[in-house]
Amino acid sequence: MNAVTGTGIGASVRRKEDYRFITGQGTYTDDINRPGQLHAYFVRSPHAFAKIKSIDTAAAKASAGVVAVFTGQELAADKVGGLICGWTVTGKDGTPHKAPPHPAIALDTARCVGDQVAVVIATTKEIARDAGEKIVVDYDVLQAVVDPVDTLKPNAPQLHAEAPGNLCYDWEFGDRASTDAGFAKAAHVVKLDLINNRLSPNPMEPRVAIGEHDRATDTTTCYSTSQNPHVLRLILCAFIFGLPEHKVRVVAPDVGGGFGSKIFCYAEEVVCVWASRKLNKPVKWTSDRSEAFLTDAHGRDHVTHAELALDKDGKFLALKCSTIANMGAYLSTFASCVPSYLYALLLAGQYTTPAIYAEVKAVFTNTTPVDAYRGAGRPEATYVVERLVEVAARQLNMDPAEIRKKNFIAPDAFPYQTPVAVAYDSGQYELSMNEALKMVDYKGFAGRRAESEKRGMLRGIGFAAYIEACGIAPSAVVGSLGAGVGLWESASVRFNPTGSVSVFTGSHSHGQGHETTFAQVVSEKMGVPIEQIDIVHGDTQRIPMGMGTYGSRSLAVGGSAIVKACDKLIAKGKKIAAHLMEAAVDDVEFDAGMFKVAGTDKSVPIGQVCFTAYVPHNYPADLEPGFEENAFYDPSNFTYPAGTHIAEVEVDPGSGHVTIAKWVAVDDFGNVINPMVVEGQVHGGVAQGVGQAMLEGVVYDKASGQLLTGSFMDYTMPRADDLPNFDVGMTHTPCPHNPLGVKGCGEAGAIAAPAALMNAITDALGVEIDMPATPEKVWRAAQGKVRALAAE
Amino acid sequence: MYAFNYHKPKSLADAQALVAKFPDGKILAGGHTLIPTLKQRLAQPTDLIDIGGLAELKGITVSGSTVSIGAGTKHGEVADSADVKKAIPALAALAALIGDRQVRNKGTMGGSLANNDPAADYPGAILGLGATVHTTKRAIKADDFLKGMFETALDEGEIITKVEFPVPKRAAYEKFRNPASRYVMVGAFVAETASGIRVAITGAGPTAYRWADAEKALGAKFAVASVEKLVHTSNGLNADIHASAEYRAHLITVMTKRAVAGAGG
Ligand SMILES: Cc1cc2nc3c(=O)[nH]c(=O)nc-3n(C[C@H](O)[C@H](O)[C@H](O)COP(=O)(O)OP(=O)(O)OC[C@H]3O[C@@H](n4cnc5c(N)ncnc54)[C@H](O)[C@@H]3O)c2cc1C
Q1: Which of helix, strand or coil describes residue A343?
Q2: Ligand 1 atom 43: the closest Cα is on which residue?
């Protein structure tokens, strides 16, 4: 840690942003109100699938306070482009995925409950909503399909003419022949059918969009709860409106959580921006929680059959899996890459499995679009691998820790080329697992189980040795896989004349604590205390460029860009310092905020160098004034955080209630900037993973396509008392290819937890069940076990 | 929310007058059922008559073998009351299981009973203890008060004023919470009262009801063994995405057994 500031790398500094959040002084998008602002209310389809025969807006338009009512026809007449998918996945047959038109307001067909059908714009929100209720839509209701398996059946309702059979793509990855060969010589084959349940992201803050047009400068501003304002601007300009980017500004101020759901460009942003230009008035829309359940892109929703081939000693020979992934009614912004590249490329897990083959069918159904949600593809992969491995241990009567250790990639095997394209950079998988085994007191488990059984309870233990690919991502690599964007990050580090620092980052903080962590990086590099450093983000007018925050990329990619900019400043500072100290530039060293002449006691502090750069009275002749540098960083590889989580549960077979007795997480995120922030990310991630495994699950009524979990009365969010005390440990294997040696920590918990918890619950039950392990499901499964115990 | 007129009467008599004056109005107590309903535009009362501040509806008194609780008493006040804890600890414990702290600091006993949500806790308590619901018009025995899903014996405009609970010899309540809403999925209130054993089941059916088989078995012997083998029918029980009727039927036995154990049986 930086001895001078005490706020550098490795310090558990309290989060700078928390004071304003905790005292209710954050500025969220809904806190922004523009002069003359109007309010938008969306009329949404109450049907999952329906032809829109006619829309009568006359009564709504005639209502006092209503400024305008628009339907899809007006947007189409103005040539407003539809919502796009920014990643093209190419199927087995060489054809690109089907991305059917996705108008911001439905034209003639509504394809899911909540699909936009019309918008009312009025002087208040209540007037808009009242008028919305006066709009009469004549629907021809069609039979809907919500299940990803059902939608592929020959007689299934067809959602899009462009996607015959409701198929978005049929994609494969890996080597089928070598995988088949592995299975042919296997001593054991483990087979598993798995459902990865659909999740509603539920960030604390619902989405908000405000469009505002300034006629004087012909500039349009979109205030939005976005996780990546620059990409939103790019989509709005290049694909939706055909506007030049310098005339469009996206501002995403304090954002209250996203978990992926705020990466995407949504219909409401498009409509508010368009309407504000059309009406020359600011137009605001704030989602309520009911709308959030219906319209925020959901996560996961896979149906998978997976098989693992093993030799007689439990060594993995090959893995194959076949997955149907539900895309919902339309293809959301990055939906296509989630169940393909972000999934199949992680199927090697932490193991030396030499042959892997995956095929994925992405399908359309009459449900809310599905896209990236905390972990995006990697929790699905970890769930497949770690459930298979655990079941293999059970079937082969091997210890679940031992079977994993037997197959781990050895620490000296890095960089390690997997059979699924990615090359892992560094890792010490057994080290993390051993630490976790120690922390959980694995040896004592048998005794704890016996003690539980004495009380009529069932006890189980479950592992997840997960891996993820983070720090998304080398631009050339993702480009070759179909991405429509580069995934670098940019930073600008500006020393102000009196020595304080403004850092402009293209990463976006919506709960991650960048204002603290990034400041610590700069504090460490430049020897300035963090109180003197402000992190500026979330405004395309202030930040040079950005690719946003998702895929645990902010520190690994955005932080690296900041380091690069700092390095440029140090290089420049050395020239200024050399001039001031009348020394050769090569003799100047920089450490802890001081420029020194090597081997002498001559030094100048960075504050003086900075001041000199702005008041260059005594200054190198060939040097530009100013103390500000800009940098872009494009990573050369993904980073590969990994670790072992162990869950221990006690199941009450009488009621089906599951208590999590222990949770041990030993993660390897490489170097850690702020251990407290990292631990918080682990806690939050595990909480969401626990939610997926035993609490959460979006349910649609199969017959009507209605969303049955449309509020917190029916959608079970994890609460504090559902969770155990977390024992968080860490190992540190630095990332070898970024300057901070960091790997990313935001998604790990959500990736590891579902598999660990389901392995524990099914260990207790002795029966395989799917997520979410609700009390009734657990109770039903426990009946067999109770009978078996009674017979003993 | 649709627009409405808001009234804050100063006395119960004023409240009654307002209720009579506005036939399409509604009483507002803690608002923790009514306000969410209004926000979702599922109700459109012309007027809200806020009885939240009425001193006449507040307070907990214990006299002899009766605990009397004003209809405006908040769940949290019941949960924290030293008197209730002493006289009927099971009732205080039940109140402490309602919702979360915010809900308990706003929601009232009168509001909960008037609403008679099938997944509410208090209906189990009034039925299990054989309480009497007092209104602006009359006194109604618990056995006659709960009429069906969201239905009570209350007439239009009739206001609950207080509930009188006879102090039982012993009693306990066990609740299996709906994992999402934390309302009752199955609750069992078991009491040994002066007039015999009462077992009230809430959350499982359209409204709380007494489980005759369990009452009979416990009447013979107040012990866990008397109920643990009882099988409750799943006919007529609620079924939803959280629990089938069959699972609820099973939980009824489990919760009843636990309540008996909790009451020292
Ligand atoms: C998040 C949440 C969780 C909850 N969890 C639980 C739970 O676990 N268990 C549970 O039992 N309940 C639960 N509730 C409901 C809560 O207990 C409510 O407070 C209660 O059901 C209604 O009481 P209230 O005073 O808020 O009534 P209000 O919402 O003000 O009124 C409800 C209805 O009763 C009528 N009313 C009110 N007072 C009277 C009166 N004195 N006489 C006649 N009619 C009257 C009103 O006109 C209205 O129709 C929960 C509520 C929320 C919001």
Answers
A1: helix
A2: B159
Asked, for residue A525, whether it belongs to a domain, the answer is yes
H/E stretch holding A275 reads: helix A267-279
**What is the CA angle A85-A87-A90, rounded to 5?**
115
3-state secondary structure of A56: strand
Question: Alpha helices of B105-180 — where are they, by DSSP H?
Answer: 109-115, 122-129, 142-145
Instruction: Give me the mean pLDDT over the B33-41 stretch.
Output: 95
In this structure, the answer to whether residues A598 and A677 fall within a common structural domain is no
From the list B40, B180, B247, the residue facing A776 with the nearest CB is B247
**Shortest CA gap B158–chain A (Å):** 29
Task: Kindly tell me if the per-residue pLDDT of A4 is higher than 70.
Answer: no
From the list A129, A133, A712, the residue facing B180 with the nearest CB is A712
Q: List residues near ligand 1 (CB under 6 A).
A: B 26-34, 36, 71, 98-99, 103, 106-108, 110-112, 114-115, 117, 120-122, 159-160, 182-183
Same domain as A226, residue A101:
yes
**Same domain, residue pair B114 and B244:** yes
Tally of domains in chain A: 3
Look at residue A458 and tell me if it is in a domain: yes
Q: Is residue A316 in a domain?
A: no
pLDDT in tens, A290-299: 999 999 999 9
Query: Are B179 and A779 a contacting pair at CB < 8 A?
Result: no
pLDDT in tens, A475-484: 999 999 999 8
B28 CA closest ligand 1 atom index = 30
Residue A219 corresponds to which tokens in the numbers above? 């500039």
Where residue B265 falls among pLDDT bands split at 50, 70, 90?
confident
Bridge partners (DSSP) listed for residue A658: A651
> Which long-range contacts does B65-69 make (Cβ < 8 Å, 24+ apart)?
B65/B166, B65/B167, B65/B194, B66/B164, B66/B165, B66/B166, B66/B167, B67/B91, B67/B164, B67/B165, B67/B167, B68/B162, B68/B163, B68/B164, B68/B165, B69/B109, B69/B162, B69/B163, B69/B164, B69/B165
- Residue B64 C-alpha, separation from nearest chain A C-alpha, in angstroms: 38
Q: Give the separation between CA B163 and CA B84, rounded to whole angstroms.
A: 13
B38 and B71 part of one domain: no
Q: What's the CATH number where A91 sits? A: 3.90.1170.50
Q: Is B177 on the interface with A (CB under 8 A)?
A: no
Give the helix/strand (H/E) hosting A209: strand A208-214
Does the pLDDT at position A126 exceed 80? yes
Q: What is the pLDDT of residue A2?
A: 53
Per-residue pLDDT averaged across B39-52, rounded?
A: 96
pLDDT beyond 90 at A790: no
Alpha-carbon distance values, A400 to A40, A442, A449 (Å): 55, 11, 16
Asked if B241 and A708 come within 8 Å (Cβ–Cβ), the reply is: yes
What is the Cα–Cα distance from B245 to B201, expressed in whole angstroms?
Answer: 14
Give the number of domains in chain B.
Answer: 2
Where do we find the tokens 């008679």? B116
Retrieve residue A355's tokens: 């042959």
The whole-number pLDDT of residue A75 equals: 97
Same structural domain, B42 and B170: no
* A598: in domain: yes
**CA A667 to CA A745: how far, in whole Å?**
9
Interchain proximity A695–B179, CB inside 8 Å: yes
- Same domain? For A579 and A705 the reply is no
Encode pLDDT of A495-530 as tens digits: 999 999 999 999 999 999 999 999 999 999 999 999
Range of the domain at B109: 58-262
Instruction: Please spell the DSSP secondary structure of A701-757, one letter per residue.
Output: -TTT--BS--STTTS----GGGS--EEEEEE----TTSTT-B---SSHHHHHHHHHH
Looking at the fold, whether B127 and B238 belong to one and the same domain comes out as yes
pLDDT of A54 reads 98
Q: Respond yes or no on whether the N-terminal peptide bond of residue A772 is cis (omega within 30° of 0).
A: yes
Domain span at residue A607 reads 18-26+488-633
